[in-house]
Design brief:
mainly alpha; Monooxygenase; 4 helices
Length: 85
Amino acid sequence: MQIPADLIGYSAATLTTAAFVPQAIKTIRSRETHAISFWMYLMFTVGIALWFVYGVALGSWPVIVSNVLTFLLAATILALKVRWG
């Protein structure tokens, strides 16, 4: 039995996107951003935006959906870092 490529893509997307949820929740609740690197989150957020564009260019729904969700989570953390330092 061969596993469809989209199933692998959706599984990878689910795991990598879900990995950001605990950090976003912790940051929102605690308002503690001192230990978070601004430059890392800035580069990461821009990179995720570019992965989204790439997914659109390919028409790859696993790439598109996962990167929209990951972008929202990373951008939230980045915005909180900017706001609370």
